[in-house]
Amino acid sequence: MLQLKTKDEDVSFDCAVQEYRAWKHLEGTLNNDVERRLDKLRHYFKNTNIRMIGTKTIVDYSLRLADRGLRPNTIKRELNQLRAVLRYAEKIYYEYRCPDIKMPKVNDERDVHLESDEATAVLNRIKITHPKFYPHFLLLIDTGARLNEMLRLTHFSFCGDVTRIERQHLGKSLFREIPMTNDITSLIHSGDMPKNLNIFSSPQVASATLGKVLKQTCHDLGIKPVRIHDLRHTFAYLTAKAGADLGDLKYLMGHSDIAMTLRYRGFIPSRAKSFVRSAR
Question: Which structural domain, as residue segments, surrounds residue 30?
């Protein structure tokens, strides 16, 4: 049971974060993403009394995130973390009440992706202009791996006819096996698949470098610019278009919750018409 704190007049946000972090650690749900968001919040609200964090303060924080160019869905994740901390503080500090936190409206259906011919054109061009990065882009598009997952792949990750992708979740290693496309198989058999894909000094450098190559390639080909993470959406879109359902996508994308997969529901062709016609 929670032990209520009887005085909260002098409670700083940093103390509230420490209490929240200790509880999440006890639950076994403290992961790297949570730690990163908590550190950002602590830095912004440093030495601030939790009673001083009201609706206006939170709106100002949201506007600052927007000024940094963060997208609504990213801002929503940061605000959800702030709300989680303050709601926990509400449970343990006497008479403290979490303020109302307005969330930005987010369209959670991912519609930024490449079509099949565009993805092929991008890969073919990168293979000529930036051959050392070709394996990186091929794996991002043909496995749906997150950037950090792709960078951790080694020659041991390619077993038989599948690519074994590792994901860290709650301190555990989870694996999913993605069937290899012909292009990945050919790259492995040719001996051109690097033993170490992480040739960058940091994930940030990898994102910036590959992002610049992708942006230039899209420009040269005359197609809409996309981000590195949109290559993951491209995989989901093309896989759904080929016949995968939400259950398939949940596994292939490595989602821990089907709610995360629902953002791709618009990619799956509706079979409602045929279902209705054949139902009776």
Answer: 13-92
